[in-house]
Amino acid sequence: MFKNLINGDWVEAPGVTRNINPSDTRDLIGEYAKADAAQTKDAIAAAQAAFPAWSLSTPQQRFDILDAVGSEILARRNELGDLLAREEGKTLPEAIGEVARAGNIFKFFAGEALRPGGEVLPSVRPGVGVEITREPVGVVGIITPWNFPIAIPAWKIAPALAYGNCVVFKPAELVPGSAWALADILSRSGLPKGVFNLVMGPGSQVGATLLDDARIAAITFTGSVGTGKRVAAACVGRMAKFQLEMGGKNPMVVLDDADLGVAVNCAVQSGFFSTGQRCTASSRVIVTEGIHDRFVAAVVEKLRSLKVDDARKTGTDLGPVVDASQLAQNLKYVEIARGEGATLAYGGDALEHNADGQPGFYMRPALFTDTTAGMRINGEEVFGPVVSVLRAKNYDEALHLANDTPFGLAAGIATTSLKYATHFKRHSQAGMVMVNLPTAGVDYHVPFGGRKGSSYGPREQGRYAAEFYTTVKTAYTQA
């Protein structure tokens, strides 16, 4: 059994989670510890005890540790990418790319540890000086989703440690392998005992304990809207800091003047790659009338050429859905859309096995046309390879449809018009906007986050991460 990491020791847990390969459900990747509330409290106590010394550690110590972690991740990117593809289902090239991103994140925040910043200002009073500095917030609870099982943990753990916080990390139960591998690297990096703790287990036990324990100074969460609201309520109740990344129903606008090849690439990459299991996926494609029919035909042709197969097999374009419940949800939304009158232009059916007979959670990507803004398929996040097309008369209507959502994470536009591109960047109600690029693909050194129901709190990644993982102190000195 792969154990939890608490206070520098690998510890057995009361239960076990079986990690199954979604590309081949006969393949057991391993059995991973399933913690309870008591074990979670042990981890919190260890982090709390380690915080005073770690919060005063030198920038050089933190740099050396984080840089070493990043170097090991990058050196093992093929091995770790294979594990990620095996347990989560994204294709091997996508998985290796995600691992490389995680390594680069740790190296970026290693550098940030050496650049803490601050200000020295004169007071308005004679002979008085002012210093403005940042200090760590304390013990940070980190709760991550299954769709990016090493990159999202990296962009939460790395800044938490870089700024001098201690961590209790709860990964998604569906993908414990990548989380355990990352914890193993951290355990050998030179971190003092208790600074980083891995507690794998269910949200009802581990997550709930993190939310309710007064020793947790801050919670950073990525996951569903419903759970995010529960995180917010719990943290507000005890005045803890919190950061939420939740759902999306992201639009990709295609205008008449767009380069057709660029538009098709943007739509297919955004909506279907990583099996559509990305919060930044564009599941609504809003197409103006002049290019609509040619665009739909070209997308269908592209989808016919995509190979749905084992995530680790060479030539696979789309891997499986992550598990049986997600596949069932995807298929449910296909039936809902058909029942509402949408036209299924391509796909939408489950495949019981791949070409080699491996049983897995395979699904042919689904493209719907003749949809309207009021349909559930255009209002609710499916989180699978299911994309709908809305027809718009012109740019103004397309922009209105793009913003007609309670979410605001990412948005994209395909156009050769500088006028429309500039206007869309300013008027799109999203935290991240792409012009002639897929909506999924944000560099590791820039802020990540959205608006409206997609995000709450300071941005993640880049230098903006300091807003969440530190608190500001203003100090005066009389000369």
Question: What does this entry look like structurally?
Answer:
The protein is α/β, with parallel strands linked by helices. The protein has two domains: 4-246 and 454-478, Aldehyde Dehydrogenase, Chain A, domain 1; 250-435, Aldehyde Dehydrogenase, Chain A, domain 2 (3-Layer(aba) Sandwich). 39% of the residues lie in helices and 25% in strands. The chain is built from 14 helices and 24 strands. It has helices at 37-55, 59-75, 77-88, 92-113, 151-162, 176-187, 203-212, 225-237, 260-272, 289-305, 324-339, 395-403, 418-427, 466-469; strands at 4-6, 9-11, 15-20, 28-34, 119-122, 128-136, 139-143, 166-170, 196-198, 216-222, 241-245, 250-254, 282-288, 343-346, 350-353, 359-363, 366-371, 386-392, 407-408, 410-414, 432-435, 451-452, 455-456, 470-478. The strands form seven sheets. A seven-stranded mixed sheet has the order 14-17-18-13-12-20-21, sandwiched between helices. Strand 20, helix 13 (418-427) and strand 21 (432-435) form a beta-alpha-beta unit. Helix 4 runs parallel beside helix 5 (151-162). The N and C termini lie far apart (61 Å). The mean pLDDT is 97.
Mind sketching the topology for me?
Blueprint: E1 4-6, E2 9-11, E3 15-20, E4 28-34, H1 37-55, H2 59-75, H3 77-88, H4 92-113, E5 119-122, E6 128-136, E7 139-143, H5 151-162, E8 166-170, H6 176-187, E9 196-198, H7 203-212, E10 216-222, H8 225-237, E11 241-245, E12 250-254, H9 260-272, E13 282-288, H10 289-305, H11 324-339, E14 343-346, E15 350-353, E16 359-363, E17 366-371, E18 386-392, H12 395-403, E19 407-408, E20 410-414, H13 418-427, E21 432-435, E22 451-452, E23 455-456, H14 466-469, E24 470-478
Parallel strand pairs: 7-8, 7-10, 8-9, 10-11, 12-13, 12-20, 13-18, 17-18, 20-21
Antiparallel strand pairs: 1-2, 3-4, 5-6, 6-24, 11-23, 14-17, 15-16, 19-22
